[in-house]
Amino acid sequence: MRLRAALAAGLALVAAAPAPSAPPAPAAGVKLWRLDCGRVKNADLDMFADSYALAGKRKDMVISCYLIRHGQDYMLWDAGFGAELAGREEEPVPGVRVSLARTLVDQLGDIGVRPQDVSILGISHMHYDHASQAASFPKAKLLIGAADLAELQSGTRNPLVDAARLDPWLKGGAPSEGVVGDKDVFGDGSVVMLALPGHTNGHHGLLVRLSNKRPVLITGDLYHVSDQIPVHGVARFNMDRVATLSSQQRFDAIVAALKPTVIIEHEPADVARLPAFPEAAD
């Protein structure tokens, strides 16, 4: 009898719940620019699949960042290699070279956007290749996964993290928000941080619904290269393998539902699907 009553109560709740609404229409004036935040030559892909499925493969990779204009507001997504690398090339490990042609500030100047014009800085996760020019935008509100923010605040010694790059928010009192789950950045469904944990515990991707084109879905580092997708590659340095596979499953379901333009942030062919800077997708 108790089970029957519980089932009846549950069905009543389901019946009373409001029907899910359709995704909101994109806000007028949403534009997306791709930005060059660095390059990696001859990267070893074995690190991106703990199953050994990519052993022996190498590829040139990019470090990409993105500027979104929503009405009169500007949001920067990820902040790439450090500005000190601009105009130089280094060889951090034998046979692999990294470089940065121009800083974010320099590139944004081409379209008349100043650092103080950027009101939101979204960081997909705490690794240095996604956060190292963040301090160039100290007036922006930082949005980053709550778990990553907590680790940054704890003084983590993770070799992939350089917390000092985020000092304006960790020590200087600049506004920040630790994002739990998904976040509708502007409240109209046009720009949504998607919780895709596993690479780091607070890792997010980004969904951008443009005004005139299909949505754009940016992976963060859920995938690093397209070679991972058919083999369900989980990077050897991911923090949670099970969470990564679950996030990949969610990501694939979103792709099936929305049929977006998918951009793997380190995959040159994917980044090239967007107009070359200074042109924008809208």
UniProtKB/TrEMBL annotation:
Protein's recorded name: MBL fold metallo-hydrolase
Domain Metallo-beta-lactamase: 62-266
SUPFAM superfamilies in alphabetical order: Metallo-hydrolase/oxidoreductase
GO molecular function: hydrolase activity; metal ion binding
Naturally occurring in which organism (per UniProt): Edaphosphingomonas fennica
Signal peptide: 1-27
Similarity remark: Belongs to the metallo-beta-lactamase superfamily.
Keywords linked to the UniProt accession: Hydrolase, Metal-binding, Signal, Zinc
Pfam families on file: Lactamase_B (PF00753)
PANTHER family: BLR3078 PROTEIN, QUORUM-QUENCHING LACTONASE YTNP-RELATED-RELATED
